[in-house]
């Protein structure tokens, strides 16, 4: 799983080191990189494994092929997705378009979300985190263990 948050700095060539724990997780899944695309909901980048983007693609493909919403999702996610490979030092290079979407200039925050992670400009994430905590508190009764997990507690 992708857990915790890690802040790293863009170097002069626009590269950033991906946290070792995230690289290790991706490597254990057989990947030497990840897929990223602009978030719909935030000034951030969504990041995931090849398996996860294929699952998302299958979900999009399950929509009626003659409905506009299928094309909207495919265009917004798949056509905007970038496959980033780690260099020998575990760094990636984000495109200008991706950096601009997330308003990233110097520092990058990698935020673990379990099966996926996000990439944020640190100050933007701090603002979002305050909102997320407030809304999580208000909606905490919605979070329940499923039956399978009850036996594992």
Looking at the structure, the CATH topology is Chemotaxis protein chec
Helical residue percent band: 25-40%
Radius of gyration: 17 Å
Structural class from helices and strands? alpha+beta
Which strand-content bin applies to the residues? Answer: 15-25%
- Give the tally of β-strands: 8
Tell me about the largest β-sheet.
Answer: 6 strands, antiparallel
CATH architecture, by name, is: 3-Layer(aba) Sandwich
CATH class: Alpha Beta
On the 0-100 scale, what is the average pLDDT? 93
- From the N-terminal CA to the C-terminal CA, the straight-line distance is 18 Å
Unreliable stretches, pLDDT < 50, 5 or more residues? Answer: none
Number of helices in the DSSP assignment: 6
How are the strands ordered across the major sheet? Answer: 1-7-8-4-3-5
Number of domains: 1
Q: Give the CATH H-level superfamily.
A: Transcriptional regulator MraZ domain
Q: In sequence order, what are the helices and strands, one letter per element?
A: EEHEEHHEEHEEHH
């Amino acid at each position: 799983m992708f857990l915790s948050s890690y802040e790293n700095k863009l170097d002069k060539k626009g590269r950033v080191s991906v946290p070792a724990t995230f690289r290790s997780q991706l490597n254990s899944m057989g990947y030497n990189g990840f897929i990223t695309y602009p978030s719909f909901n935030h000034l951030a980048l969504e990041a995931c494994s090849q398996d996860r983007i294929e699952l998302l693609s299958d979900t999009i493909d399950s929509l009626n092929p003659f409905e506009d919403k299928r094309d909207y999702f495919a265009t917004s996610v798949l056509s905007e997705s970038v496959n980033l490979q780690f260099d020998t030092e575990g760094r990636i290079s984000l495109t200008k378009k991706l950096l601009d979407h997330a308003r990233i200039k110097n520092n990058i925050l990698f935020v673990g979300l379990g099966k996926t992670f996000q990439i944020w400009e640190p100050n933007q994430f701090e603002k979002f985190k305050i909102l997320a905590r407030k809304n999580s508190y208000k909606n905490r009764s919605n979070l329940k263990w499923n039956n399978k997990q009850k036996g594992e507690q």
